[in-house]
Amino acid sequence: MELRLVRAFTDAGVSLQVIKATIEAARDSWHMDYPLTTRRFLTDGKKIFESAVDDAGDETLTDVRARQIVFTHVIKPSLYTGIEYAGNVARLWTPSGNKGVALDPSRQFGTPIVVGPSIPTDTIFDAFIAEGCDRKAVARQFEIEPKHVDIAVRFEERLRA
Asked: Which of 37, 78, 124, 133 has its CA 20 to 30 A from that of 26?
């Protein structure tokens, strides 16, 4: 989850040195190992937003790159799509448009997995290619349903595109 935001920050033109310093400062301030996984920093995959509470107690979202406050009630719901939280910390992310795929730091080191069998999508995809695109052979090899192969292949093809 934290790498997702690091990538968004670098895509937005933020240097790795600044990102590292921000993470370290936030760790010290918030006493957390992974501060970017909190709800303070949000991304839609294209822009990075910082969430803050103003003096009136209202939440504001600021587009970090544009340094512009955005309409919170419009933007915020889409930022949480697919993310499950344990308290205030992200626990699981299911990328939009990829039903059946999840990134869970507690399983397979946070790599994308097929929900159910918990097998990394890239492992299934590599086997699919090695088997000459025979989804039934791959399903037998991993003792999973062919639909799980389809889920992994679709996800990896979109990812690689």
From this structure: 78
